Amino acid sequence: MGTTQLESVQEPKYWHLRTVLSEALDSDFAVGEILPNERDLAARFGVARATLRQALEQLELEGRLQRRRGVGTTVAPPRVGVAVSTAQHEWTGGVSGEAWQPVDCVSEVAPTAVAAMLRTGGEPVHVVRRIRVTHGQAVAAELLYVPASSVPDLSAIDAPSGPVRARSVMRELHRLGLEGQDRTVELGSARADDAKELDRLPGAPVLVVTTRYFASGGTAAVSVATYRADTCRLTFGDSGALEISHDEQQQERQAS
Amino acid sequence: MGTTQLESVQEPKYWHLRTVLSEALDSDFAVGEILPNERDLAARFGVARATLRQALEQLELEGRLQRRRGVGTTVAPPRVGVAVSTAQHEWTGGVSGEAWQPVDCVSEVAPTAVAAMLRTGGEPVHVVRRIRVTHGQAVAAELLYVPASSVPDLSAIDAPSGPVRARSVMRELHRLGLEGQDRTVELGSARADDAKELDRLPGAPVLVVTTRYFASGGTAAVSVATYRADTCRLTFGDSGALEISHDEQQQERQAS
DNA sequence: CAGTGGTCTAGACCACCGT
DNA sequence: CGGTGGTCTAGACCACTGC
C-alpha cells in the first residue's frame, strides 16, 4: 500500500525509453547537437539496440530527431510551417520567396486515379516535376499532371521535356483563371524517386497532398505533392499563420 | 551483359516484400480478408519474422492492412475521407450525420503551447473531450480548449465535469460569431489516452490537426484533434469532396 | 485453451560518410 | 579506413483475443 505507485501498468520498454529520451532532449540537448551512437545509448539504458532504435524511430516520427546513415543522430530543429494555400489562386504555391522549382517535364499517361480526376482516358498528359524548397532545404516533391487541353497554346517548338519544358507548361498554366481547388491530406510512404529528392530513404513517412485545380468548368490539373512528414507542419490559414515557438512545442509534449 | 538486369541496385528485402505483398493484395485478396499469420508468411517468403513485420508495418502505414493483436491481419478498406471544413463556421465539424460526440469536460490548465495561442496565462480553461465517429468507427479524438471568457454565460449550476458539462460548453460556444479559423496538420504519434479511444496502440501514427477559432477579435478556442493516420484521408474542399474509388487508388499504387 | 500480433534480445553484416 | 545508422536473423516471451 505504501509503495509509491510503481508503474503497475505494463508499458513497453521502448515507449518508456521514448519518454525518457524526449525529456532528456528538452533539458540537456540543443538543436543540432549530436547524440551518442546507438550502440552506446543502448548499453547505457541496458536494452538491446533494436529496442533503442524503436524509441528513436518514434522520436524521429515526431520530428524530434534526425538520423543520417554514416553520420549520426542529431536533435532536429522545430518543424517548418509550410503554407498549403487555401482558396488562393496560385499555381506557384507562394507569392514571394520560397516557391516551387520546376525540375523536369515529361509526357506520360497519368496513373489511373489521376486520369479519373482529369477525365482523360489513356491519353498522355504533361507531367511536371517540381521541388519545394524552404530555408534551403527540399521539403516536398510534386508531380503536377496537366492535360494537353489545359495548355492549348503550348509551343510545340520548345524542348519536349526537361526543365525548360516544365517552365513553359507552368507559364501557360498561369493564364488560366482558377475557379477553385480541392485538397486532401493523407499519410504515405515515399516512393524511391521522391525519397531521393527529399534526401530520405524509401518508405520514409510523408504527407501526401492531392490538389485538384478547377478552371473553365472542369479539372484543369491535378497535383500530388509529398511533404517530408518529419520536418513539415502544413498550415491552412484563413487568416495568418499558426506559429508556435520551439520551446512551447516541447513543453506541450512534456505535458502529454 | 546478357543477364536480364538482375536487381543490380540494392533494394532492402522488406521493401521488395512490401511491393510483392502490395501486388498480392490487389489481385488475390478482398477487403476484410484475413492474411496468413506472420510466422507462416515469413516462412513462405524465406525471411525472418522481423523482416516480414517491417513490410507489414509499411503497408499498415499506407492504410492497406489492419492488424489486431490476438486476432490477425486483415485487408483494410479504403481510407475514409473526413471533411476538415475550410472557412466554414461550424463548431460541430459537420452539419448533418457524422459529427463529434462530446465525451467529457474538465477544467484544467492548458498546455503551454495552447495557452500561448489562447493568450491565457496559468488560469484553467474548459477542456472538452470529443470523439469523431464515421461509419460507426472512431476516427478522431479531440481536446477542445475553451477559455472561461469565451463562454461567460455558462451556468455554474450545471455539472462541473462530464458529458453534460461538455454539451453545455458546446452550446454556449455556438452562440459566438466565428470570424475565422487557422489550421495546421502534422504527423504525430498517439498518446496513451488518445490511442485508447481510437482503438490503437500508443505511438500509432496520427494526423494532428490544430485549429484556432477566432471570434470577437481574439482566439476563442483551440482544438487539437488527432486522426487515425491509417484509416483517414483529410479533405479540405473549396467545392465538393475529392472522391476516389478504391480500385482507382489501388491502381495508382501499382503504377508508382 | 491455442493462436494471434507485440515486444525484446544478442548477435551479424551491409551501405554510407567523413577523415 | 573507422564509425555511423540501416538491414536481417533466429530465437524467446508476453498480451490479447476468441473459442
Automatic annotation (TrEMBL), chains A, B:
Q: Which PROSITE patterns match?
A: HTH_GNTR
Instruction: Supply the alphabetized keyword list.
Output: DNA-binding, Transcription, Transcription regulation
Name the InterPro entries on file: Bact_HTH_transcr_reg, Chorismate_lyase_/UTRA_dom_sf, Tscrpt_reg_HTH_GntR, UTRA, WH-like_DNA-bd_sf, WH_DNA-bd_sf
The portions of this protein that span the membrane are none
Known Gene3D superfamilies for this protein?
Chorismate lyase-like, Winged helix-like DNA-binding domain superfamily/Winged helix DNA-binding domain
Q: Does the keyword DNA-binding apply?
A: yes
Q: Name a Pfam family for this protein.
A: GntR
CDD domains given in the database record:
WHTH_GntR
Q: Where is the HTH gntR-type domain?
A: 11-78
Which protein are we looking at?
GntR family transcriptional regulator
> Which organism is this entry from?
Streptomyces stephensoniae
